[in-house]
């Protein structure tokens, strides 16, 4: 939990509200998946639910469920602001998610799995049991209901895939 939160701190250093949201998520995720003692887990889960209500739902106007599996360095440039991430979603490391994005199920079929270094533009909707590849870009306001391969961009409603010739270059900061 601490290692993941430190990576989130590096990715979102200038936004304390986002850091509180990500701390709440990482804490809830740790309680859900790591705490084994039932009494301790129930107590900590109650604390998580209060933090979730205050920091995530009311102050940040979004949903980021503790059961979701999210890699390190999650970057939220505009905070959680209207972002909804399903409890069964899987998101890789170094993902960037802009405001008003929905990542969730469709007709109880399943939730998306998003690869590493994904870039998800403003207002995008990623719905259903689909796979978004590594280094994929999802365009603003796109509705993605089918798989997006590695190194591709998806744009439009419904989204269509545009393949890139070369993979993204590694960040050398």
From TrEMBL:
Pfam families: Hexapep. Its EC number is 2.3.1.30. One of its GO terms (cellular component) is cytoplasm. Keywords: Acyltransferase, Repeat, Transferase. It is an enzyme of class 2 (transferase). It catalyses: L-serine + acetyl-CoA = O-acetyl-L-serine + CoA. The keyword Acyltransferase applies. The keyword ATP-binding does not apply. InterPro entries: Hexapep (IPR001451), Hexapep_transf_CS (IPR018357), LbH_SAT (IPR045304), Ser_O-AcTrfase (IPR005881), Trimer_LpxA-like_sf (IPR011004). GO terms for biological process: cysteine biosynthetic process from serine. One of its GO terms (molecular function) is serine O-acetyltransferase activity. Belongs to the transferase hexapeptide repeat family. This is Serine acetyltransferase. It comes from Paenibacillus typhae. The lineage of its organism: Bacteria, Bacillati, Bacillota, Bacilli, Bacillales.
